[in-house]
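Form 7-S
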Amino acid sequence: MKVLTQRDTEILHTNPYWRYKHDRYELPSGREADYWYAHTFGSVFVIAEVSTDRFILTRQFRYLNQDASVEFPGGGLAEGIEPLAQAQAELEEEAGYTAQSWTYLGEFNPMNGLTNERCKVFLATELVSTTAKPEESEEIEVFMWTRTQIEHAIAAREIWDGMTLAAWALYCFRRS
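Output:
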């Protein structure tokens, strides 16, 4: 397959977590075309395993969907932050836990037509309870579910967040 070559790029908006960009690139035919996308520094998700069949999840209201979302702890990376360090911070910030053991499970792109983001997924075990420190924009409910409860919530569409679904798939693949 032909590599699509970038001809020009401009940043339309920037914040600590992503940049909205406009590129001109070469199509396979040789013509130039436009591409608008979110360039990010990545993100992380944490599967926090309390025991072999208990996991920490969060519920928070998601503004863009105007709906509550059941998710694993996670968040975006700011430029220069290492993924494991951010995963550790997100687990403590959102769920109120630290972990003694961390395992990298894999990565995925959450929406490869709109962003170049890579989400790195970590398994956290040997958990220690601490105090959650959510950001001002976050009101988070923390709870534990079994594997069966998670699977039923996926089937019932109570878990609809794509990043949570992908992170769970990586966990299930690695643990099978």
